[in-house]
Amino acid sequence: MTATTASPFSSYPIRPAATAAALGPTVIVAPHPDDESLGCGGLLALLREAGQPVWCVLVSDGTMSHPNSQAFPPAARQALREQELRDALSILGVEPTALLTLQLPDSQVPLPDTPAGFAAVQQLQEFLREHQPATLLVPWRRDPHPDHRATSQLVAAALAGLPAAPQRLEYVVWAWERATPAEWPHPEEVVGWQLDIRSVLEQKQRAIAAHRSQLPGSPIHDDPTGFTLAPSMLAHFQAPTEVYLEAPHP
Predict the structure, then answer these.
(1) Nearest Cα to Cα of residue 179 among 169, 191, 170
(2) How many CB atoms lie within 10 A of CB 90?
(3) pLDDT band at residue 5, thresholds of 50, 70 and 90?
(4) Mean pLDDT taken over the chain
């Protein structure tokens, strides 16, 4: 479903690129391979440019983008998409080894009150205790994709169990195209702002392009009903800014 009136994102104030360096060591939590580049590619590049450590948590296995492919069965799809993620991270300056994969089922990421969700929360907590990030990047809590919402809830549960939680910034992926006004951020719950990423926009575009399986001309060629990012969707991520929603600790 597409919103019938304009979203608030483009009206948010723009902060300079130097804002990134002040965020400190950062972990990005991505529901699928490509969310890191679409939602935060510019910020990740700026963080690395400033010498800040960056780690990535990949939540789902990414296998449901082309569920009917015979040439790329599930294990091959997972391997392809994970390699694309590593390639994209490398383009952004992030060590491809700085990656935790939770390998939860794509399109069925569990909630924290399930056994699989509880286990994922424990993994997240252990990872955050180990790396002690100052900032955590997580999908917008009402981003209109069930895996994005479940990821937000897993992260919230993980943070609630830590004695000192990092700053949480929420990023936007599907809300650009699909959110209804009820799913947009409310001024009383978050502070919205845009980050100037002009200096690293070319890097971000190359990172997005590394996710070849999700773009027209995908190497997964035998599933005509498979998912690819539409030009209208990609247009939102060609902008010289990225949107962030600054949330209080849960």
Answers:
(1) 170
(2) 13
(3) low
(4) 95
pLDDT average, residue stretch 43-60: 98
What separation in angstroms does the CA of 165 have from each of 120, 125, 135, 162, 168?
Answer: 17, 10, 9, 6, 8
Distance set, CA 125 to CA 76, 116, 131 (Å): 29, 14, 10
Q: Residue 167 — φ and ψ, nearest 5°?
A: -65, 140
Q: In which band, very low, low, confident or very high, does the pLDDT at 120 lie, cut at 50, 70 and 90?
A: very high
Nearest alpha carbon to residue 83 among 27, 127, 33: 33
CA separation, residue 105 to residues 31, 46, 169 (Å): 10, 31, 25
Structure tokens at 181: 């006004």
Beta strand 241-247 with 167-171: parallel, antiparallel or unpaired? Answer: antiparallel
Q: Cα 231 to chain center, whole Å?
A: 19
Q: Which residue has the tokens 């509880």?
A: 118
Q: What is the DSSP letter of 64?
A: G
Residue that the structure tokens 């694309």 belong to = 84
* Token reading at 166: 């990092």
Whole-model pTM?
Answer: 0.95
Q: What are 121-138's pLDDT values in tens digits? A: 999 999 999 999 999 999
Q: Is the pLDDT of residue 219 over 80?
A: yes
Above 50 in pLDDT, residue 2?
Answer: no
Q: What is the DSSP string of 109-178?
A: PPPTTSHHHHHHHHHHHHHHHHH--SEEEEE-TT-SSHHHHHHHHHHHHHHHTSSSPPEEEEE-STHHHH
